[in-house]
Amino acid sequence: MTSLDDLPLRPELRGRTPYGAPQVPAAHRLNTNENPHPLPDELLADLGAALGSAALDLNRYPDRDAVALRADLATYLTRTGGQPIEPGQVWAGNGSNEVLQQILQAFGGAGRTALGFTPSYSMHPIIAAGTGTGWVDGHRAADFTIDPGAAVAQLREAAPDVVFVTSPNNPTGTAVDLDTVAALYEATPGVLVVDEAYAEFARTGTPSALTLLPGRPRLVVSRTMSKAFGMAGLRLGYLAADPAVVDAIQLVRLPYHLGSLTQAAARAALAHTDALLATVDAVKAQRDRIVDALPSMGLTSVPSDANFVLFGHVADASAAWRALLDRGVLVRDVGLPGWLRVTAGTPAETDAFLTALGEIAPDHR
Ligand code: PMP
């Protein structure tokens, strides 16, 4: 059998493993931060009609610039982000992962570096590797917050071409305040990407970095329909930035990258934004229920503005992960000693998780 070592693979990819949570069967899958609520019936009906009508034109390439979809996304951001956003400031791709990759294709690449504050979304360094961009690990404080003074010093020293700030952060749930984002922007001559995949789940009073866009042409805010909109299967992510950033990304995007069925489905979904986002409060209530239940089990959590909770301290994260799986609950071992991450889902899923955790906690603290 041919192995990877037999192939003329790029040296920096040798020895790596593909990204991905273990896909093991479990009664309760709380490991990938999806929204468990089914799509509203009225959206399902409209989706069928929208896809049917887009199908009539499948012999043609899609709208290469996704003009109508980007206008709908701009309307959504303007309504919810506290900041008017023009369609020309928005770019969309197949999931925010693709958008992040396009950002690195345009602003990273050979001889350039990107920096992120670990622990954070582990795809950022993987996308850096895939685009030939060097990676620099930035650091967080022991409580997983970003200390502005220390972070600014790290940026000054490393001088990266692209900086990632995930807010709310995955896997810790930690939001980054806007003063810190603004200070990081000033400290770098590069592009500052605020990855807001979980922004809609933030606790009241946590503003979006969208409000910082005016006058900051190197600031990029990325978003997704995979989490709060409950449409992870759609693969639709997007960014808001200065229109010049969108021009730059058009230099690297593949022509017709976003299929016409995807564009049609995303537009149909955005027409039902309020019904889709009605699940957000329910998910936040389950997140807070998990947080509140942990102390009675002798456990703790990191304050979360996302749809998941990083909980601990467990003596051995992989043993606790296995013990929960044995009880039908699949959570994520994110490789942080003493911590595991659980997605907040339905009340029944929280029941199952808390029951299983209550059973295993005495042996795993
Ligand atoms: N950013 C963060 C912080 C994430 O956690 C994820 C998904 N796990 C993504 C981006 C990518 O999401 P998608 O490609 O589904 O939009």
Automatic annotation (TrEMBL):
Keyword Cell wall biogenesis/degradation: no
Region: Disordered, residue numbers: 1-40
Entries under Pfam families matching the protein: Aminotran_1_2 (PF00155)
Residues annotated as signal peptide: none
The protein's Enzyme Commission number: 2.6.1.9
Reaction equation(s) it catalyzes: L-histidinol phosphate + 2-oxoglutarate = 3-(imidazol-4-yl)-2-oxopropyl phosphate + L-glutamate
Location of the Aminotransferase class I/classII large domain: 30-357
Cofactor: pyridoxal 5'-phosphate
Record-listed N6-(pyridoxal phosphate)lysine modification sites: K227
One GO BP annotation of this record: L-histidine biosynthetic process
Gene Ontology MF term list: histidinol-phosphate transaminase activity; pyridoxal phosphate binding
Keywords for this protein: Amino-acid biosynthesis, Aminotransferase, Histidine biosynthesis, Pyridoxal phosphate, Transferase
Subunit structure: Homodimer.
Family per similarity comment: Belongs to the class-II pyridoxal-phosphate-dependent aminotransferase family. Histidinol-phosphate aminotransferase subfamily.
Name used for this protein in its record: Histidinol-phosphate aminotransferase
Source organism of the structure: Blastococcus saxobsidens
